[in-house]
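Problem: given the chain below (432 residues), write out its structure.
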Amino acid sequence: MKRIIMFVSLAFVALFATAQVNEIEKMLKGIEAVKSFEKIEKADTTRQYYMLKIEQLLDPENPAAGSFEQRVMLGHRGFDRPVVLVTEGYGGDYAFSAPKYMEELTKIMDANMLFVEYRYFSGSMPEPCNWEYRTVKNSMTDYHNIVTSFKPYYGAKWASTGISKGGSTSIYFRAYFPEDLDVSVPYVGPLSGAVEDGRHESFLERVATKADRDAIRNLQTELFERKERLMPMFDAYCLENNLVFRVPTSNIYDLLVLEYQFSMWQWGTPTNTIPALDSDDKVLFDYFVKMCGPDYFAMGSSIESFFVQAVKDFGYYGYNVEPFHKYVNAEDVEGYLKRVLLPEEFADVKFDDSSYRFATDYYTENDPKMLLIYGEVDPWTASGITWMRDRNKKNVKVYIQPGGSHRARILNMPAEMRDEILEQLNEWMQYK
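Solution.
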């Protein structure tokens, strides 16, 4: 008898799952923008996963410019559950291939997920590639089209979230299409106002404690002092790893020593992991390339598309050369993004700050429901919109994790702060 009951129960579950799949696929076939889809098997059996190809206009204001297909992953939990739109800022290979991929906000709310790969990355790269249409504004329209396509089927609350550049994307998206979402939860997202924004350098001069700042600077100074001795190792390392650069490796070495400071604070690496300054050359060199791999500045980078956007309208950061003026010439560092990270065709590109100004104006004048997550020592916080805390906003709430880095998340916040965020999120999203 028990076997019969178990068999019937399993049959019912299978029937229900099949019916659910049929409803999802019926929905996907009914959405005009969905050009193709395929089911993805994931270890998470609470959701049905699909990889979609969404047709998008290269230039929403000029259909004649053509279209491309954008990769999206749907993680369907239920038509009555909230939806989390993940505004990835780069390529999405890691999410499509990971058997257990799920965004933090999706877990918290037991929500549906629409993970969207950013245009001009990986499987969402137009052919041919015309960089003219690679703008913040056009990219935000991609997300708007996806929300518009799926909203008729998912009637519960909608939230967006993203990490780092994905966080910035979530911030921009809310400014451009404020009515698309109920809540936005960007993590560690900057809004940069220039190719070399200028706020990060001063931030790094006062971050954390003087002892920690001195430990990092002393290591940088030691690396400059030993440059002549370490360069043969550096050149051999680059040759062994088939790294080719647009400038001499001597310049790459200097840039990496400057980058080391930013990297240490971005990831919150404890300064007690820094080797003793009297360590032998091999120990110091191995540590250096582990912390700041020269592949970052090499040609053929997988994120070259980001560097293109950075010089066009997204922005980036510069380096403070003054403490090392005896080792480095400022003119060899200034403008490094175009000279080192991009082909010569971008040398004369002028930065367009209109999206930055548009978003800044929007948040100055409006008060959308928003939970902004930042890390206290993360240099990207310098160009975040943390200034919103001082604007007497009712709905925009900024949370800065004490001692936190680029890894700051809701669930690793201090307990009191975490609980406050979760309570507010539930009040707005009504997911319980």
